[in-house]
Amino acid sequence: MTPQNxxxxxxxIGRVLVANRGEIAxxxxxxxxxxxxxxxxxxxxxxxxxxxAELADxxxxxxxxxxxxxxxxxxxxxxxxxxxxxxxxxPGYGFxxxxxxxxxxxxxxxxxxxxxxPEVIEQMGEKTxxxxxxxxxxxxxxxxxxxxxxDSDGNFPSEEVLAIAASVGxxxxxxxxxxxGGKGMRxxxxxxxxxxxxxxxxxxxxxxxxxxxxxxxxFIHRPRHVEFQIFGDSQGHAVHLFERECSIQRRHQxxxxxxxxxxxxxxxxxxxGQAAVAAAQxxxxxxxxxVEFLLSQDGGFYFLEMNTRLQVEHxxxxxxxxxxxxxxxxxxxxGRPLPWTQDDLTSHGHSIECRIYAEDPENGFMPSxxxxxxLNEPSGPGIRIDSGIRQGDEVTMYYDPMIAKLSVHAxxxxxAIDRAIGALKQYAVLGVTTNVEYLISILQEGAFAxxxxxxxxxxxxxxxxxxxxxxxxxxxxxxxxVAEHERVSRGTAGASSAQAETLRATPWxxxxxxxxxxxx
Length: 520
What we know:
It is built from 17 helices and 23 strands. It is globular. Helix content is 34%, strand content 23%. Strands 14-13-10-11-12-15-22-20 form an 8-stranded antiparallel β-sheet, with helices on both faces. It is α+β, with helices and mostly antiparallel strands.
């Protein structure tokens, strides 16, 4: 066990405050319920009737809708934990999940932070420090270098930057040293563009993360994004739970993830898994985390970053391994050892996750706001829905527009793709526009089926996507769906046989393209 973990509190947990909202808060609350652990939800004023608030044993309103006055307020969250006699705080992902100061404040308040130590969060949150640690541990990293600080006008010393860039080689990437999500990131193809790219990335990083430090690294052409799920405990044990292919991204945000990766041979999986475990051991990692790699076309792989939290896409790992990652997070936070060794862990079949967003793919993927008038989620063998919304809930401007994650499991990748397409076609949401049709189009692409993936896949294969649905037909189907929704709500007699047949035959995903908030 490394020094940064010595001061961490470990003891049995009787009540957990979930410092998050939406589907991840629901996921954590349900895991706690299975473990007979009490739960406290925090919520903003607009979320006071949300699913996570109603599922918890206790809910506490901590502020108005704006995240900066509620979910991003450590003081209010800690006050709620103290007032409700909590032992621990689970941060979920996003918001304060990778905030080292919040984790430290939890420990100082005598609360268990269900995640790694503040020191590990701090080290891995600063990408250049993380690179140095990984290099020392023998984990391959992309060649690159930290840039000097700009002057008061935001200009970098040109000769020094050009020399560093030349040593790295073109094309290259300029990246923010703090933060992620594509903020403060630029691709540069030639020397005449590098200074402007560095200044632009610095300004964007400063605005997004409060820190304008940037670095450059070699650009890997058409790489895959492959991450390994890691787990560590306070006894110094660390394992990986195999990989997830995350190459299907839009603007650097993952939208479809799967495991196993169609690119990995058993030998490459073993090699990358060993590197991921070495990364975890290098920092004395506790809890669930992810080591992310870029995989080049020649089979070379390079450390990208470590996410010091549970990932959005953790369900696919659970589906192929049978592990409960949230339960294990809680057990490790109590000081218990990992429930498995590396040899205990096996992967069975294939799993795919699709992130469902309330957004309009035909209108620049703008968020789609409004009430969920109708919601019918698919079910059946090998289908899992993680969601924090219900019919009648409202999608607002204040939070991320992801409304659900649809995950499937099957015996083979081809069968998993078919199952995902079938489930998406039965996902009914009316009142907001969704990306469900867009997801189906991706899964139906021949290049996707063949496993020819890379991080620029969507820009290359589907740069200007348009729906195939005829607007008049879609509107008729949507009106029929609203009529059926009202019939069910009133408990009236059944719809006409023709209308019922229309509803049965409809791919529900198509209905989400029509905002019918004013109908009825």
